[in-house]
Amino acid sequence: MKDNPTKSPFVTASTGNHAMGAALAAHALGTKVTIVMPMGVEKHLLEKVKQYGPEIVHYGNDLNEARAYAKDIAKRSGHTYFSPCDEFMVLAGLGTVCVEVLQQFEVLEKPIHNIFAPMSDGALISGIGCFARDAKKQAGSLRPKVKVWGVTALNSMALAASLSAGFPVKTETSPTLAASESDNNIIRNGIDFRLARTTVNHVVTCTEAEILAALRQLHVQEKQYVDGFSALALAGFNKVAEKVKHETSTVILCSGNFDRDKIGNLVYGT
């Protein structure tokens, strides 16, 4: 946004994290942004985005329809469209999570072997993968070859299926506790997909029961109040924990966008 040569307003589409990031950045820079969000976005997410003052347009039944409409708005208005998953700077920003992890382990003087993160449309996992790949080039006693584990919900397999096929495929999706996953039934041959193909080392698929167990573990045992999308990463780790028990692993908890009442019902049965 800061380096936008045309100084034109921005348009993007999202259901949560990207929407908040775009709204916050636009607010900080004093520029305008229109965010297209699918119909039926949960109220608590909408309120979080609204606090930064963007123009919000509701369109479509899913994120793919919202993105198509956002591009149409940009084309008709002359505004600048930017993608949540096909912009190098966006992916680099997401990937700084990996930089923080590597730096923290260097301070602790401990090696790190595995990073677990949810896959969704590929933006976060590809950003993490790029920095992990660079770390491998400087591998030493504290930076062995870091492996990136992408975790996907069984109910939403678009990216996992695309990586397995070697090209983008469309899949059927079902509702999932990892809500951000269910928005993506089509993976496009964008920067994020191409990077994920070369930087994600392993894919773990989790059922809804496994995601719920991880969500309960985080809330009850760890007192980490996150949503199902974050719990997905822990569910993946739990599934292969025996395999990596002699290695050091990090689980990325990347989203706290949850409705307290909904989470309370799921976790505590209240």
Automatic annotation (TrEMBL):
<dbReference type="GO" id="GO:0006565">
    <property type="term" value="P:L-serine catabolic process"/>
</dbReference>
<dbReference type="InterPro" id="IPR050147">
    <property type="entry name" value="Ser/Thr_Dehydratase"/>
</dbReference>
<protein>
    <submittedName>
        <fullName>L-threonine dehydratase biosynthetic IlvA</fullName>
    </submittedName>
</protein>
<keyword id="KW-0456">Lyase</keyword>
<dbReference type="GO" id="GO:0009097">
    <property type="term" value="P:isoleucine biosynthetic process"/>
</dbReference>
<feature type="domain" description="Tryptophan synthase beta chain-like PALP">
    <location>
        <begin position="10"/>
        <end position="256"/>
    </location>
</feature>
<dbReference type="InterPro" id="IPR001926">
    <property type="entry name" value="TrpB-like_PALP"/>
</dbReference>
<dbReference type="Pfam" id="PF00291">
    <property type="entry name" value="PALP"/>
</dbReference>
<keyword id="KW-0663">Pyridoxal phosphate</keyword>
<dbReference type="GO" id="GO:0006567">
    <property type="term" value="P:L-threonine catabolic process"/>
</dbReference>
<dbReference type="GO" id="GO:0003941">
    <property type="term" value="F:L-serine ammonia-lyase activity"/>
</dbReference>
<dbReference type="GO" id="GO:0004794">
    <property type="term" value="F:threonine deaminase activity"/>
</dbReference>
